[in-house]
C-alpha cells in the first residue's frame, strides 16, 4: 500500500472536530492514515489480522478518549507512535509475556522498490536481492529508522518521538545504519542505495 500524504491544513480541523465528538472527523483521519499505518505495520508482522486489529485499536482508543486528548504537533506522528506501541503490546501478549518491554530484538522487515528507469530489468531482481539481504543484516532499529526517514519522510525529531528515543539517538541509529551499509556494500551498490533513498525523500517534498 502506498502511504497517503495528508493535507496539513485540514488536520487540525479534523482533530478539533473529533475532540468535539464528530464521528465523521474520526472517519476522515482513518481514511488519511490507515494505509500508511498498514504499510508501517507490515514491516513488523506478516499477520494482516494483527495489523488491522492494532489500527482499529488506535482509532477506537482515540475516539474513547477524545475528551482527554491534547493537540499533538503532528497527528501522523501521534498515530504512528500509538500504533507502534499497540503492535509491541499485542506481540508480547501473543507470546504470553506479562509486561511490555521494547528491546533491540524485534522483527522489522526492510524492502525496496527499485525504479525500473534506474537499472535494466534483467539486473533489477539481482540488485534488489543484494540490497535487501544487506538491509536485513542491519539491526531492526536501524531498518525502522531508515523506513521512517526515507519512506515516510520523517525528520530526526519525529523519528525519535515515534521510536521513543532521543533525537541524538535517532541521529546515532541512522549514522550507524549508513556506516554499516557502506561497509557491507560495494561502492556501486552503496551509491545506488543512497540514490534510491534520495528519490524516496524527493517524492514527499
From TrEMBL:
Superkingdom as given in the UniProt entry: Bacteria
Pfam families: Sigma70_r4_2
Keyword Membrane: no
Keywords (A to Z) from UniProt: Sigma factor, Transcription, Transcription regulation
Residue ranges constituting the RNA polymerase sigma factor 70 region 4 type domain according to the UniProt record: 134-177
A molecular function (GO) term: DNA binding
Gene3D superfamilies per UniProt: 1.10.1740.10, Winged helix-like DNA-binding domain superfamily/Winged helix DNA-binding domain
GO BP term, pick one: DNA-templated transcription initiation
Family statement drawn from the similarity comment of this UniProt entry: Belongs to the sigma-70 factor family. ECF subfamily.
Protein name in UniProt: RNA polymerase sigma factor, sigma-70 family
Organism (species): Pedobacter caeni
Lineage: Bacteria, Pseudomonadati, Bacteroidota, Sphingobacteriia, Sphingobacteriales
Amino acid at each position: 500500500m502506498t502511504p497517503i500524504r495528508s493535507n496539513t491544513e485540514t488536520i487540525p480541523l479534523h482533530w478539533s472536530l473529533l475532540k468535539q465528538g464528530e464521528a465523521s472527523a474520526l472517519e476522515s483521519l482513518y481514511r488519511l492514515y490507515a494505509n500508511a499505518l498498514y504499510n508501517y505495520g507490515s514491516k513488523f508482522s506478516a499477520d494482516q489480522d494483527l495489523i488491522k486489529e492494532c489500527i482499529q485499536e488506535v482509532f477506537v482508543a482515540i475516539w474513547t478518549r477524545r475528551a482527554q486528548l491534547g493537540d499533538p504537533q503532528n497527528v501522523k506522528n501521534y498515530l504512528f507512535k500509538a500504533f507502534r506501541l499497540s503492535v509491541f503490546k499485542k506481540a508480547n501478549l501473543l507470546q504470553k509475556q506479562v509486561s511490555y518491554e521494547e528491546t533491540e530484538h524485534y522483527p522489522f522487515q526492510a524492502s525496496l522498490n527499485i525504479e525500473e528507469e534506474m537499472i535494466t530489468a534483467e539486473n533489477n531482481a539481482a540488485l534488489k536481492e543484494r540490497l535487501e539481504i544487506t538491509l536485513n543484516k542491519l539491526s531492526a532499529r536501524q531498518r525502522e529508522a531508515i523506513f521512517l526517514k526515507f519512506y515516510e519522510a520523517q525528520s530526526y525529531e519525529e523519528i525519535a518521538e515515534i521510536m521513543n528515543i532521543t533525537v541524538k539517538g535517532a541521529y546515532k541509529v541512522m549514522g550507524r545504519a549508513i556506516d554499516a551499509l557502506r561497509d557491507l556494500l560495494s561502492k556501486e551498490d552503496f551509491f545506488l542505495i543512497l540514490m534510491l533513498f534520495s528519490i524516496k525523500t524527493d517524492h514527499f517534498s
